[in-house]
Amino acid sequence: MAQHRLSEDALDRLWTRFHELVNMNGNELRSWLLTEASNPEGFTSHPSLNIDEEGRKIIHVLTKRRTDLTDEDVDTMQTVVDEVSLLLQNPRPDDDEWRHALMTLGHDPLKPTSPRPGEDPELSG
């Protein structure tokens, strides 16, 4: 098992929280990111290269077992948890940019499994 800066308990909590908030699987996220990258400015003959680095990192973490995490994976998970949690604290369900920002992080706020402000104690600022 890899050594991390976090205690095993903290890593377990982060792993669980990441997978609660990232409610899109790797294929859904990849498809979404490719769709987002296929705008006229971003599309090239190699569309897989147009997935931004953060998106590739999230997909990479989604393919891993907890025991195989690197420090970079842990950093990615913490960043995603922080960013998704922040976006969910100020919900704007009618704002496409808000939803797209969440989906780029692997969280589809329209999925029935999506944590909702007021229902999730960690989102009740």
Summarize model confidence as the mean pLDDT: 83
Q: Which stretches are low in confidence, meaning pLDDT under 50 for 5 or more residues running?
A: 40-45
Shape: globular
What fraction strand?
under 5%
The major β-sheet equals: none
How many beta-strand elements?
0
Distance between the termini: 35 Å
Number of helices: 5
Rg from alpha-carbon coordinates: 15 Å
The helix/strand series, from N terminus to C terminus, equals HHHHH
Helix/strand-derived category reads: mainly alpha
Helix residue percentage: 40-55%
Organism: Thermobifida fusca TM51
Protein name: DUF3140 domain-containing protein
InterPro entries: DUF3140
Region (Disordered): 101-125
Give the helix/strand layout:
Layout: H1 8-21, H2 26-37, H3 53-62, H4 71-89, H5 96-104
Q: How would you characterize this protein structure?
A:
With 125 residues, this protein is mainly alpha-helical. The protein has a domain at 9-42 and 52-102. Helix content is 51%, strand content 0%. The protein contains 5 helices and no strands. It has helices at 8-21, 26-37, 53-62, 71-89, 96-104. Helix 1 (8-21) packs across helix 4, helix 2 runs antiparallel to helix 3 and helix 3 crosses helix 4 (71-89). It is globular, with a radius of gyration of 15 Å. Residues 40-45 have low confidence and may be disordered.
